[in-house]
Amino acid sequence: MSDIYGIMSLAGNALLAQRKAITVTGNNIANVNTPGYSRQKLILENNTPLQSSAGPMGNGVDAVSVERVYDRFLGLQINSESETLGRWEARMGGLELAEVIFDESGEFGLSQSLSQFWGSWQDLTNDPSGYNERVVLQARSEVMTGTFNRIYSDLERAQKGFDASIEGAVAEINQLSQQIAELNQKIMEDEASGYTANDYRDQRDRVVKELSGLIDINSFEDATGRVTVSVGAGQTLVESNSSRSLTTQVNGFGFKDIAWVGPDATTVDITADISNGKLKGWLDARDVDIRGYMRQLDTLAETMTEQVNNLHQAGWGLDGSNGNDFFTGTTTASGSMGPLTNITAVAGGTGNIRVTVVGGGLVPTPSMTTDSVTGDIQIVIQDGATTQGQIAALLQTHTGIDSVTAAAPGSAWNLSAGTNTEVLAGGSSAEGIQLNAAISNDLDLIAASSTSTGIPGDNSQAIKIANLQHALTMNSNSSTFENYYNSLVSTVGGTLQSANAYYTHQSAMVVQLENRRESISGVSLDEEMINLVKFQTAYDAAAKLITTADELLQTVLNMV
Amino acid sequence: MRVTNSMMSNTITGYLMRQSEELYKVQEQISSQKKINRPSDDPTGMRNVLDYRNKIATVDQYLDNIARGTTRLETTEITLDVVNDLIGVVREISQQQAKGTTQSRLFAADTVRDLANQVVDLANTKIGNNYMFSGHKTDRPAFGHVVEISGGIPGDLEFGLAADATNVTIEVMDESGSVINTITPAGGGTDGVNTVAWSGGLPTDGLYKFTVTASNAGGDVVDYATYNGDTGTVRIIMGENSELTINADGREIFAPAGGGDAFEVMADLITALKNDDTAAISTLTQQLDSVRTQVSEFRAASAPKIYQLETTENFWSNYKPKLEQLLSETENVDLNEAVMRLNQLDLAYQSTIATAARIIQPSLVNFLK
How many Cβ atoms sit within 10 Å of the Cβ of residue A486? Predict the structure, then answer.
């Protein structure tokens, strides 16, 4: 029935509805710069019409709900690309650190020291008994070995730096997971009344995006509006309103691995299952890139030590001695893995590798693969069938392994019985290479002569050592020492250059996706201004309607 | 497409960041004068730069080695020139004295002795701290009375005599010149090279000079110096796996196998002059001729070596600037190009900023009352 009071209430509803609309607009304006905010719309519908003598008549406006303008698929895409972006950002940061350590632009790097080292051997050939030449050779050798030591330890320090970043990221992941769980709870409670919890959902989206930048996740929303997040090989991080945490463990190399803490406080190592996000970037920089560079440095130092020492030992010093080492400081890596006792690697730092035994083989005969960058060895066996003796024999054929002893060669290897991975540690080349202290104490030990009767004028042995500069000693006898190192520097630069390219490309992609999101969900102040005017005018009109209804009422009252 | 405020500000920020990064890179290149400031700027280029630097350093080293070798050969040449002259003077004296009087011959003997000593000094020329003509035994004079005690074991004392001697006294001296041991070999000495074993107390390890006094029934016997070195050669690195071998055996000059011993000849001459032995003097004159020829032959044999060093030095001297040019082309920035690029980027940057200012500022808020 449309009477005056009906008009009043219709106007009142309209007033309230327009006021609500202005509130929503105000909220949008206030949050124009809030990151991750999706603009909200008030959904207005017309009320159910009333029957009247003139047929159905409209009954005003109904403010149904507030919805956020949001593309869910876009959100998932952004998360996924953010994972990759985080990974390249972290890896690039790591490689930049490494590049600074290999700085050769100022002519003070290892390339220069190597060059001067060989030069001082040639100077010695010009006066084999000369004291000055020996002093300079000693100095140049010490600078060179010192540079090897410094670069190696700087790289090691960089690796430890990543550990700090990883620790920080794990703590942040735990915090974010907790936040998601709490938001899950809040959203569930709020939406129990049938309305969407827009602001909480915005917050949760933002937290999930931040989390995906750190580690690759699988996330999905269930029917009750709660988001489940899982990491690694399916370990859940957030489920309904509770969260699990990640933690760090020290691995055989002395660096931090990432583990998931299960319900009964057991830890599962998920490092190998992380494939994206900043964590992956740091892990790659630490365990693949920098470790690869250190391995190449070790190979260079080891080969130099071997080649120079072989020739020097065959030569005679001014004091009549022979058989002296020129370089010292290489040590051998070793370790034990369960029944395989005494695994000894070849001398030098390249022996610091990880040996892992895995199952999955279909025949008892084991097979072996070597990682080309890190040198790590993996042996595939048939669980319970392959014997220790077979594994030991296979391992011994590896060029990087010197000797292996099996405790009980005939018995089979059980993957579940004990440890199946071991890091062989203690090897050192680039880290420990030194000029033989005996030579530092007595320069007469430097062997320039190739016979005992040639002292002091014979320079043949010094010539042989000087000619090592151009000998093809590296890369299976296809490169010289200088070539090898120069290639290493080039590789450091090249890897960084491509990481840079990936990062730039990924950044551009994420920016574009973000812009699309903004285009859909972002607040445009101009639009909101127009809305303000729109709703304010409507409010004024509705207010006018009330005034009119009031005047009608007055007229009726005055009629009597 | 719906455009929001955030979108515009983000996009503009992004472009401004990118442009300032480009500007920063160009500025760095201009300041450092290098195109490649870090390996990632140009990995292949960096590697080439390091390779070129290594090569240039090596070439510098070769040039240095060659310079040292050339000095050695030139010193040899000068020394032997003087030796040649001195032996020439001795030969003149010898020829004159073929008709000389006993008295003039006695005076000549003294002159020849002085000249012979001068030749010995020249034979013991040093380059730096090393004797040039001792082979590998560069720590002892090529010719002279020197004995070595090494590892507590004394060497033999070797010296030459112009004639048989009944009395021979050897006095071993230390650095200050005081006598520390006197050895008198029983049976005296013979004409030619004598080897006497050490006897008496052993001083510490080292090289010791000794003097020889010999006499026979006719009077004093002249002694002469023998070779103390070995056959070792000097090798100079001229290039990659390429060495020049220089003869450093003093005997090849003064006492070659199958030829005359210059010092023996001169000692014999002194003896002949003192003994007034005309026949001997004539024979010795001819022997002095062949000794002189030996020295000239040795000098002639060295000439190709000097030539080899010169041509190699020319090669490296011409090669080095080419390497330096390659290095410069790879590493150094072309200043003109860089400054042009800087201007371009600067212009672009300024346009972007100006546009940004115009786009960001206006808003509907300004127009609503």
Answer: 24
pLDDT band at A297, cuts 50/70/90?
very high
Residues in A touching B3 (Cβ below 8 Å): 519, 524
Q: CB under 8 Å to B115, separation ≥6 — which residues?
A: B86, B89, B90, B93, B266
Q: What is the mean pLDDT of chain A?
A: 91
CA distance A399 to chain B (A): 29
Does the beta-carbon distance from A486 to B39 stay under 8 Å? Answer: no
Q: Do the chains contact at A118 and B232, CB–CB below 8 Å?
A: no
Partner B contacted by A406 (CB < 8 A): no
For residue B134, the chain A residues in CB contact (below 8 A) are 457
Residue B327 contacts by C-beta under 8 Å, 6 or more apart in sequence?
B49, B52, B53, B56
Task: Show residues of chain B in contact with A320, CB under 8 Å.
Answer: 150-151
Cβ-contact B215, B180 below 8 angstroms: no
User: Which ipTM score applies to this complex?
Assistant: 0.90
pLDDT tens digits, one per residue of A133-147: 999 999 999 999 999
Rounded Cα distance, B354 and B344, in Å = 16
Q: Please give the residue of chain B at the shortest CA–CA distance from A120.
A: B61
Interval A473-514: pLDDT, tens? 998 899 999 999 999 999 999 999 999 999 999 999 999 999
For residue A11, give both structure tokens.
Answer: 């106007």
Contacts of B363 in chain A (CB under 8 A): 525-526, 529
Q: How confident is the model at residue B113 (pLDDT cuts 50, 70, 90)?
A: very high
Model confidence pLDDT, tens digit, residues B316-360: 999 999 999 999 999 999 999 999 999 999 999 999 999 989 888
**Exposure class string for A505-522: b at 16+ Cβ within 10 A, else e:** ebbeebbebbbbbbbbbb
Distances (CA, A) of B4 to A66, A171, A533, B11, B352: 21, 35, 19, 11, 19
Instruction: Give the minimum alpha-carbon distance from A524 to chain B in angstroms, rounded to a whole number.
Output: 4
Task: Please answer whether residues B352 and B16 qualify as being in contact, where contact means their C-beta atoms are separated by less than 8 angstroms.
Answer: yes
Closest partner residue to A457 among B11, B64, B136, by Cβ? B136
Verify whether the Cβ–Cβ distance B363 to A526 is below 8 Å.
yes
Confidence at A2, pLDDT banded by 50, 70, 90? low
Peptide bond into B141 cis (omega under 30): no
